[in-house]
Each structure stands twice: as C-alpha cells, then as structure tokens.
Amino acid sequence: MIDAGPNTLLERGAELEGLASQLGAARAAQGSVALLEAPAGQGKTSLLRVLRAEAAHDGLRVLTATGAPLERDFAFGIVRQLFDAELHTADEARRERLFAGAAALAEPVFATAPTSDEEDPAHSTMYGLYWLAANLAAEQPLLLVIDDAHWADAPSLRFLDALARRVEDLPVLLAIGARPAEPGAEQALLDGLATAPATRLLRPQALSERAVKALVNAKFDAEPAFVTACFETTRGNPLLVTELLKGTPFTGRADEAEAVRTTVPGTVARTVTARIRRLSDHALAVARATAVLGDATSLERVAALAGIAPEEAAMELDQLAQADLIDTADARFTHPMVREVVESDLGAQGARLHREAARILHEAGALDGVVATHLLAAEPAQDPWASAILARAGRRALAEGAPDVALTLLARCSPPTPDSLLGLGVAQFRVGADPIAALDEAARTGSPEVAAEATKVAAAALVLRSEPRRAAARLRAVLPSTPEPARGELQDQLVETLAYRDDDAQEYLAAVDEHAHTGRPTMLCHLAHARAMAGAPRSEVLPAWRRAFADSRVFARLGVERFAALWALDALLAVEAADEAKEAIRAMTDLTNRAGSRSSAGGAAWMEARWERRFGHLRRAEELALHGLELASGDHIPETAIGTTLAGIRLDRGDVAGAREAISTIPEPGATVAIFGVWAIRARFHLEEGDPEAALASLERQERADTSRRWLIGLREDSHALRVRILAALGRTEEAEAFAAAEIAKAAAREAFGAESVLRLAIGDVEGAVAAAERSPLPLVHATAVAELGFKLRREGRRADARIPLREARDLAHRCGATALEARVHEELVVAGARPQRLAFSGVDALTAQERRVAELAVRGLRNREIAEALFVSLKTVEVHLGRAYTKLGIQGRSQLADALSD
Q1: Please, where are the H alpha helices in 323-380?
Q2: Is the pLDDT of residue 312 over 80?
Q3: How far is CA 513 from CA 360, 505, 544, in A?
Q4: Can you give the CATH number for the domain in which 33 is found?
Q5: Domain-terminating residue out of 254, 274, 294
Q6: Which of 265, 727, 799, 877 could be 873's S-S partner, Cβ–Cβ 3.0 to 4.6 Å?
Q7: What CA–CA distance (Å, rounded) separates 718 from 701?
Q8: How many other CB atoms are there within 10 angstroms of residue 375's CB atom?
Q9: What domain count does the chain have?
C-alpha cells in the first residue's frame, strides 16, 4: 500500500491500496484511470499529492495539472499544463522523438503561432495528443495527475476521455480528481470518463467521529462533547475540521461545543480572510492578485497587479506561506477552496483586476489564449485592443480543434470585425449552432476573400440542413465578385452543392459539363461520376477518372473532408473497375491515416466495405462497415450511409435478423441522405420478410427520390433487379419481364456484366446470367448465378449434372463469405447425391478484416507503431492481430507475409 508518510491520511486505506495497485499495474504496462470523485475538502487533493510522491519514488515520470474556473475557456489549458514543462526542457532530438509519427498532429497545440483552420482538426489533435502521451510513456512509465478536473476546459477533457479509452495498453496511470455535479462543469465529459472501461471510481467518504477525534486531539486534548460538535457540524469533512482548528481560539472544552456549531458554516471563508488580514495591510491585495492571475502567477506580475514593489510582494507571499495559505514552491494556494474564498471576496473589483491582469500578461508576452481568459472575466467593453486579442485566441482555438472555446471567445469581440465574424460563423458551424447570421454579416462587411470564405461555410451549413437550393443561390451570388483562386474553389463547391439538389439533376450535369474543361480534380471527379450515373460504359468513365487522379497527391488537394473523391470512387464501383477502385481507396486511406481524422477514416472504411462487398469478401465487408460506424459515431450522414451498406451486406450473407438490427438504427431518411439508398434497402428487407406490397411501397419511394437525380451514390442496378423480383412476387409477370429486358440492354451497353447477370436471374434466365457473371469481377454475383444453374439442373432431375455447378458455387460462395448461399448449396449437393465436406476457412480467407489490414500494412513496410497510428488502434492491438495472422497463415514472421497473402 502507498505510504502516506508522517501525516497519515485518516480512513483512506482503501483508496491508497487501490491507487497502489493501479500504480503497480502502470509500471507493468497495464494502464488505467483513477477517478477520485468527492465534494470539496474531502481528501482528493491530499490523495493525489501522496500518489505523486509515491510514483516519483518508484521511478515514474509525473506530470500534473490543476483546473481553475478562469481557464475553462482556455483551449487545451490542462493539456498545456501537463506537457509544456516536459516539452520546454526537451532538446531538439528528444522533442523530435516525442512528436514522431502521428504525435506530430498535436504539435500545433504547443506552437507559439496558430495553424490553418480550414478544416476542423478536432479528431486529429486528439489523435496526436494520444500518441504524444504514448511516446512519453515509451521512455518511462507515466503518471498523469489532473486535480480539480471539474474546472478543466472541454478540449482537454475530450483528450483525457480519448486517452482513458485506450490507456490499457500503455504504462500510464491517469489520476483525476473532480467534484461531483459542480456548477459550470463539463459534466457529460466527466461522466464519460467515469464510464471508460479502464476507470476505477474512488469516492473518498467523510471521516467518522473517531477520525475527527484523532484530528482534534492532534492539536489538543478535547473533551467528548467538543469532538462531537466538530464532527456533527463539519459532517466529517477533513478540510473543514482542519480550518476550524487553525482559525479559531478553541481549546477543546465541552462548553465550547455550541460555539463550534455557530462557527463552522462559514469556517473556511471567515478563517482564511481573517488570517490574511492579520498579516499586513498588503497581504489581501497580494492574495487577490495571486488568485486572479492563477497559473500565470509570477512575483513581478503579482506585484504589478497588487500595486506594490516586487520586494514588498515577496515579503507578503512569505507571510502568506507561513500562514499555510500559499505554497511558495509553486506560488499556488494550499487548497483550491482557499483560492475560491479569495476569489469570492473580490466583489465588483474582480472585473477591473481581470482587465488589468490581461494588460500585464499581454505586455509580458503571454499567449493570447491566456490573456483572453481574463478579458472574458472583465466587463464587456467596446475595446479594439481586447477585441483583437479575443479574435486571435478564437482563431487559434479553431485551428486547434476547440470550436466550443472559439465560440465563446469570438462572440465577445466588440466591436466585431469581418474576420472575427467569419471565425464565429465557422465555430458555430462546427458545434452545430446556426452560423448564418454571423456569416452573412462577415460577407456583407468583409473583403471579397472573406465574403467567399463565409459563403463557402454558409453553403455547407445549408446543405446539412437539407437546403441545397439556398446554398446554391448564395454561391452564385458571390461568384462574380470573387477573385481567383477562391473563385475556382467556389465553382467546385457549387457543383457539389448542386449534386444534393433533388429537384433538378440537369442543372448539376450542366454545371459539370461547363467547368470540366478547367481540369480541376473536383470537376473531373464529378465528370466521371456523372458519366457513370448516366449509364456510360467504362471506356467513357475511366479517362476522366485517370485525368483527375494522374497526380497521386490529388486526395490531399481535394481534402479529406470533401466528397468529390467519393463521387469518383463510386463511379469506379458502378462500372465494376475493381483494380482501379482498390488502388484509389488505398490512396484515400493513406491520406486519412496521415490526417488523423476519425470521420474521414470512417468514410474510407465505408468505401473499403463497399469494395469488399462487390469484389471481395462479405465477412470482411461487414467488419469494415462496423469499424466505419465506430469511427463515424455521432455523425448523422455517414452513420446513415454506412448503416445502409451494413444492412445490405447482412442481407447478402442471408442474415435477415442482423439486417433488421442495422436498419433499425438508421433514422427516417430525409432528402439529403436518400441518396444512400435507405428506402431501397428497406424494400429488399420487406421482400425477404415476405411482404412484397411493403417492399414495392419503399422501392417506389426510393425511385421518386432518385428520378430527379441520376447522379446517385451507387447506381441502382440492385434496385432494378429488386423491382423485377417484387413485381414477380406480386404476380405482375409481364411488367417485370418488360422492365427487366430494358434494363438488361442498358447494362450490356455499359459493360456492367454483374448488373446484367442479376437482372437475368430475376427473370429466370439462368444460363444468360451465368454467361454474364463469368465476364464480371463480382464474386457474389458469379456464385449466385452458378448456384442457380445447379438448382435448376437438380430440379430437372439431372442430379449428376447439377453436382458440377453446385460444387463450383459452393467454393465461390465460401471464398466470398456468402454463408447462407454456401449452406443452401451444401444442402442441394446432398439432395443431388453428393457427400460434401463442410468447408473451413483457412489461410488468407480465415483472416478478419482488421487482421488482413494489419498484415497488408506490414507487407508495405510499415512498422508496428506506424500500423497502430494508421488504424487508430494501440500498439498492443497491432501485435495481437499480427500474431493471429501468423498463426492462421502458418508462417513464422513478417518476412513471410507477402508470399502468404498472395497465395
């Protein structure tokens, strides 16, 4: 158990034992979180102080931070407290090691100047901070201590939450102290920390009367009635007991019990103030200056704010330390409650002191974010100097991925400028608030460049609100006055915006034709997509694709958050260009890995899942879709897209119950997300459930949404075949055959042989379906067509002939993960007189999607650490996946992977 030293903590044995266990686990590379939750004064800070001393004695690196009310609006303030000192003392070589790999994504947080805020870096910053902590822990086991986390800024709490959910594979103990339900706290984030799998929740309880007696008797021999009064009125709160004994002239007599009961309710406030005033005339001013300055405290600054000479301020600080109010080692109050008492006593002069503190810190070269926290605590005023600092701090918060903090800062800019209004609109957009008013004012009062940027953000916001018509109108209005290169960017965005219009596809197609000659990648991506969706053959689609992606850096130019690349990738899937699509998805995935964006990684996983569904293995497709959903959690549009794909994959595998579960999580689709085929997948589900009427109603709803578009994400060949099956199930045979004949001709003309095969199967043309499938790269389509041929031959009584295609179909179904089809074919083989053995997955087919991805990245030369960064997993997870892959492939190590995967 941790030794609390000579000043043993009373009745904290269970907490100390638990912390000792977690500390030992961290030394053994089994990380965890200790969340100490208790009211003020109940021992959290003391426990953390003892833990720090024990960890340092045991050889752990100890990094600490303490929250404060003033710093809630200082983005990553807690993070900076944790890491700044360590980074400041690191030489160039060590700093390079600490920010190696994905950790480089966090370096802007510690830079003196902000980076670009064009894309929301929130996810990448969190990802980089995780790897910074991992790099530090790789040098030496690590204890991170955060006290008063109820006052921590939201971005720092998000980092702590992200670390808490992946800490188990690191030699790290994350120890956090917080009050429960503190007003103004980011309670949802604190609650999330409490529910992380690696978190142990410790709740120090109030002291018993016996422990209170021990505290009292340490000062004087008290009579029982006095002890009882102390216990009942302090309710066993250790700090209240201590302050009661420090600040009052009691001697422990029984006749003092009543006086104790009237003293305690204001004990801390009264005794702290009284102890300060007893020292000197300037002691209170110095204490107030120290409280106002917070972590920015220094002797010179305290003196300036208190209005006295530094030598005199030093004397006053020594007196405050002797009165056990301030710890001179770090110029902090001995307990947060002491600081709270001083702050609460500021009254009306608090705002004035904070404004003066802002000027002192600014002149001393403090970060704008630090100065801004004091300006927020001052009275609002029309002050261009203050407005400029708030604007710069807000822009930096945006660049660091803290839009909630940026919103608070930029909203206080007075007078507002076009630049601050633009930043305010961007912040509102990123947190989900309405940005239109701020962006309109920025566009009205700003330069053409500011107006263009404001219009881009406003248009994106309107598209997300399913108002693409208004978005397009805004873009058109500002285009004539916009100079290059911003003009080209607006034209690209106009085309993407028109793609969301559900009332006039021709306008979108006309815009694509008009601007395709520019050769800009975005336009070429849309050109490839428009041609594919219009039914053009592969020979007309691929040239536009190749021009767009002639430069391998095109994804970086398009940006990981842009949809243009997805449009073009969809064109490749539509024309069944398997190799080109795989190469493009790999390039896209590499970019998202470098960017550290979880949402973009979710989009890449979605595209990989769709590729595997069409050209690869359904089991891997399902795993990728689930991974994409995890990465996109909380983002409505990608969740809808990936959930729809997941439902389709499960139906392909014959898992109707699993498809029902996936569909149930998809919200009722609006116009914007109808493009993902939500109603079409519901139609297929209804048909599988034996309800063709409901299936037709859902499919017709999808078709109404699709009719005006023609530029769909995923050409609806599946829907065409589905319509044929539904009509046949309803007895409308002639209508089904006529519709199928027309669509078969279109599919053949564009060389979409997989689509042709599915349509032929829907009308019973089994031989034609097999012939088309043999020209298609779609394994499930091929397996299904060959299986249907075997079924047909068996029904005709040609059992020996049937066994040949059935055996082929079973192998094809097994290789693409179509488990339900494989099972049905197995049964048909038995009926046909064969004695088939159950197939077991082995070799490459036995790998899960994640095992295969890890193995493929290893083959490409990535080290385990780089693979972990690329896949948003821990280093230990990579090691486990590689070990399992070696076992399944029957190999001994990495050097054999390439040959094993190619078998």
Answers
A1: 336-344, 349-363, 368-377
A2: yes
A3: 59, 13, 12
A4: 3.40.50.300
A5: 274
A6: 877
A7: 15
A8: 28
A9: 5
* pLDDT > 80? residue 656: yes
What pLDDT band is residue 900 in, cutting at 50, 70 and 90?
A: confident
Residue 778 belongs to what domain range? 630-647+666-839
Q: Give dist(CA 900, CA 845) in Å, integer.
A: 11
User: What pLDDT does residue 6 have?
Assistant: 43
CATH number, position 862:
1.10.10.10
Burial class (CB in 10 A: 0-12, 13-18, 19+), 770: buried
Residues 698 and 816 placed together within one structural domain of the fold: yes
Instruction: Note the pTM of the prediction, 2 decimals.
Output: 0.73
Helix and strand counts by DSSP (H, E) for the chain: 48, 7
Asked if 184 and 72 touch (Cβ cutoff 8 Å), the reply is yes
**Same domain flag for 40 and 167:** yes
Which tens digits make up the pLDDT trace of 10-41?
A: 899 999 999 999 999 999 999 999 999 998 88
To which residue do tokens 């699993």 refer? 658
Instruction: For residues 540 and 751, give the distance between their C-alpha atoms in angstroms, rounded to a whole number.
Output: 11
What is the chain's mean pLDDT, rounded?
86
Residues 193 and 215 in one domain: no
Q: Which of 481, 412, 395 is nearest to 444 (CA)?
A: 481
* Assigned domain for 432 exists: no
- Find tokens 């891997």 and name the residue: 620
Is residue 519 in a domain? no
**Within a 13 Å sphere around the CA of 728, how many CA atoms are in the beta-carbon half?**
17
DSSP-derived letter for residue 626 is H
The residues with which 130 forms a beta bridge, in sequence order, are none
Rounded Cα gap, residues 581 and 575, in angstroms: 10
Does 442 reside within a domain? no
Do residues 268 and 282 both lie within one domain? no
Omega into 485 within 30° of 0, i.e. cis?
Answer: yes
Q: Reading across the β-sheet that carries 172-178, which strands appear in turn?
A: 61-66, 142-147, 172-178, 32-37, 199-202
Same domain, 699 and 816: yes
Query: Dihedral angle at the C-alpha atoms of 775, 542, 602, 423, nearest 10 degrees?
Result: -170
Torsion angles phi and psi, residue 893, rounded to 5: -170, -175
Torsion of CA 582, 585, 587, 589, to 10 degrees: -130
Structure tokens at 292: 């106002």
In 3D space, the residue among 323, 136, 355 whose CA is nearest the CA of residue 243 turns out to be 323
Q: Which of these three, 274, 305, 328, is where a domain ends?
A: 274
Q: 292-296, 501-505, 563-567, 858-862: which range is least confident on average? A: 501-505
CB-side exposure of 864: number of CA atoms within 13 Å? Answer: 12
For the record, the structure tokens of 702 come out as 């999808």
Using DSSP's 3-state secondary structure scheme, residue 425 falls into: helix
Strand, coil or helix: 765: coil
CA 837 to chain centre: 46
Distance between CA atoms of residues 288 and 278, nearest Å: 15
* Residue 734, domain CATH: 1.25.40.10
Phi-psi region of 532 (alpha: psi -120 to 50; beta: other; left: phi over 0): alpha
User: What Rg do the C-alpha atoms of the chain give, in angstroms?
Assistant: 33
* Confidence category of residue 866, pLDDT binned at 50, 70, 90: confident
The answer to whether residues 186 and 234 belong to one domain is: no
Q: What is the pLDDT of residues 594-634, one digit of tens each?
A: 666 666 778 888 889 999 999 989 988 999 999 888 887 77
**Are 224 and 349 found together in one domain?**
no
Other CB atoms within a 10 A radius of the CB of residue 532 amount to 30
824 and 865 co-located in one domain: no
Considering the domain boundaries, does residue 381 fall inside one?
yes
733-772 pLDDT, tens digit per residue, is 999 999 999 999 988 888 889 999 999 999 999 999 999 9
Cα–Cα nearest to 612, from 630, 628, 624: 624
